[in-house]
Amino acid sequence: MSRPSLALALLGALLLLLPAVAGPYLLSVATLILFFAYTGQAWNVMMGFAGQLSLGHALYVGLGAYVSAGLFARYGVGPWAGLWVALAVCVAAGAIIGFLAFRFGISGVYFALLTIAFAEFTRIGFDHIAVLGGPGGLFLKVSQREAWDLANLRGPPAMFYYVMLALAAGALALCGALLRSRAGYYWQAIRENEDAAQALGINTFRWKMAAVMLSAGMTSLAGVFFAFYYNNLFPEQVFHISRSIEIILGPIIGGVGTLFGPILGAAALTLLGDGITEFLAALGWEIPGVKQVFYGCVLLAVIMWLPHGIWPPLAKRLGLRR
Amino acid sequence: MTQRINRRRFNQALAAAGALGAFSPFGIVRAQSAKLKVGVLLPRSGVQGFIGQSCQKGADLAPGVIKSMLGVDIEIMSADTESNVDTARTRAERLIQEGANVLVGAFDSGQTAAIAQVAEQRGIPLVINVAAAPQITKQGYKYVFRNFQTAIDIVRNGLDLIGDLFQATHTVPRTAVYMHVNDTFGQAMTKGIGALLPRRTQLPFKVVDTISYDPAARDLTVEVSKAKATGADFLLLVCRLNDAILLRREMVKQRWNPMGIISPGSPGMYEEQYFKTLGKLSDYAISNVPWYNPNAPLTKVVEKAFLQQNPKDKLVYHGLNAGFTFEAILVAADSFKRAGTTDPKALADAIRQTNITSKMTLGGPIKFNAEGQVEGIGSACVQNLGGVPRVVLPAGAAETKPVFPAPYYKKA
Amino acid sequence: MPWELVANVAIAGVLTGLVYGLMALGLSVIFGVVRVVNFAHGEMMTVAMYAAAVLFAHWQIDPFVALVPVALAFFALGYAMQAGLINPFITRPEHSQFMLLVAVATIMVNVLLIGFGPGARGVQVDYQLESFALGALIFDKARVYAALAALATAAALFAFFRFTLAGKAIRACADNWLGAKVVGLDVKRYYALTFGLGSACVAAAGCMMVLLVDVTPVLGPAYTLLAFVIVIVGGLGSMPGALLGGVLIGLSEALAGLLIEPSAKSMFSFALLILVLLFRPQGLLGRKP
Questions:
Q1: pLDDT single digits (tens) C210-228
Q2: β-strand pairing of C131-134 with B388-393
Q3: What does the pLDDT look like over B332-359, one tens digit per residue?
Q4: DSSP secondary structure of B351-375
Q5: Among C218, C219, C229, C251, the residue to mutate for chain B (most B Cβ within 10 A)
Q6: Rounded to a whole number, what is the distance in Å from the CA of C196 to chain B's nearest CA?
Q7: What is d(CA B165, CA B233) in angstroms, rounded to the nearest whole number?
Q8: Helix A58-75 to helix A241-254 angle, to the nearest 10 degrees?
Q9: N or C: which terminal CB in chain C sees fewer CB atoms within 10 Å?
């Protein structure tokens, strides 16, 4: 076995065994890490592969969550059926945003701000949709906490952990395959120099659309998970720009455009957050806000000194392929 | 060579992390403790930081007061949810792992719902201090308890008190304009008002217009202009703090002087900031809210403890937040005393048998129904007079008489 | 609907819009020259609002007077930020710049939380609650003064860019970065100068804003978003565009609140932003990018 695949197999085995050894606290942190690893991976398809900066990915999390939860709560449609509807809605939303932006030649900062605008527009819109609870929230019935009911996504935290692990692993495999496929090379060409890519005969419009739609679709599944994990949704919670920022911090810190960057970034940031909390608690320094100041300083330091994120230099050190 | 060592170290670190998880202290020494560990989860930073820190004052004074009251030792383990549902969930797990026997929190309905799931999953009782979304206690949970009114109860009590107020002041306003903040709480209250007001035929007024506004509103000019244009006799308002201040200022600027501002049950107008920023303009606003009884013996004790810890502050400005947070901890401590153990299941059983009559807040004794909800929590009509919120109704708890219409009233 | 109601709402919308415009002007100037989107803009304004509130609380300095020292201090702060933090990032990709400024914003918000607590601060001046009445029309005094000060600050900035040597040099850097370098301009220094000026603008806006709204630590992100909406509508990099965008957003929020649903009024700002981006991506008064 080659060194990278050995490392990957070890990591996989470790993650599979985690619920057996970890306490519930560690498990909840691990689930959170996987959630952000997955959404970061999805965002990375758009930004890291195809070079389109989205600052509004909460839109797809929120839509995916609300569509599947709404179908479940109002019409009793199970998550596995609702998932396809959520997927379709998010792909459509991504297609609309992508079509409008790319047809009108919007790129760079302007595209990023357009994605924020759509997310915020939708957030306020959902505050006014009475059937989905508006700002009062959409609640799902919580039940069957001990038994695994995969068909309805009802069960103990370990089940949700494995669902999220499967999603993250799937996303990793998909992205790995994509990077080595023709699509991956086209995307990278577009990312590096769109005009040159076009000159080479790549239909840049079509491939950028593909990236946006794929990214939106992948993110929608995280939304479905979110809805059934938390069992309550508020527009302020799922659509808010702070959630969009949370999603993209991981891949940026980990390494944009790399396969393992989003995973590493999500793990590093979540553990950092909890680590600082523990550290400050040990110091007896529990002043609200101190944690976030530390967190901000670490972000600042990483982005200053590791412009490509943590993964590329780390991979080099570990003797792994990027 | 360096690579090799690095990789080995890396693997060692992973193994160590795994071992740490395996021997986590959870479940080992819980039952022998003579001290009740109460995990208090509150949003002390982030957008709700203000209210979270206000609630925390009620938790900080609890161990001392409860020791002198019940003679039991409790330890407060505080955690900041950072106004974030993910953090709320992981912090709850963390507190339980560190040995919390009971959880208290968390003001916000979304965060509370997330914590409730953890509590139920782990079989650790959660006593909700403040969180009005009715759905939380409708989930069939066995370990979730709430000593706070749901939105519909707040509205019911609030509307009844409005009737009492008009009777006590011999006034008959005919029209009201209803303004509300469009967030979780405002929405729940609006639903309650929609359901209850039409059936309150003894109330002399009707609502001529409903204006909902953004909780993050930077500017309420339009909203107030619209309300003023209705020419309503008084303003029925469901607000938060910052918007309540903006709104009051805007009313003065636009020279709109209705008979008064009456909240059927929302925060905002009795809070310290409202008085500090508005000065004289804060006077005469009325909030019909779950409140503490200023004349209750327990209130005097709590007030003394509060002043000791916050010499520059007044309990009255944190009445609802600190009062209900304290009482949630009191519920936990009382059940601990009766159960005589920190075993969470025994604690939950004891909480179900709770019957606390000597309490701080208004209303009947603290007793949980089958859903884990306390019924019969009372509200007070609290009016701002001379820069302080004072209880004017019900008569039993009143400190002074209500003033309505406000002296600034000019018929539109 | 009575015409006085519409007129009063429109007047307030325009006046508030001018203050918003001044805030956005800072963002626009910075982007126009340095080509960095300041994602910590609203947070910087929050810091300025605290500065004004503190100056008032301790020495009863009227915010209109405090405007001068606060703007000067912010000029220095902005200069230092660009020289120390942002200059190395001007050639980095947008997501790196975004990350940097998000980190700065996080630190600012939470330092304010630690220093001032979560409660709101404000100023109480006697003209704050007064209004001029002209028949049925009501002009809120604080808003009128704030709008006038916004116009004056903007005029001073226009004059600086048009008539001073430094201003012309900055415009040269914006037009042609390489050309400016070739003729021997110290581009990085001018960038720092620009960031300083943009910060001074947002500080001035903050001093006026504190007359209208109480400040809390978490106010920042909402204003950052608002500033984005305004400059995109007006044209990123265009100075008159920022003021026009401010007025348009102020007016559209006011009228949408009046005619449709107040709680949904900022939805219309975002709708306006989406429309502008689609049909005139350079903004109403912007040049083609």
A1: 998 889 998 898 899 899 8
A2: unpaired
A3: 999 999 998 899 999 999 999 999 888 8
A4: HHT--B-S-SBSBS-B-B-TTSBB-
A5: C218
A6: 26
A7: 15
A8: 130
A9: N
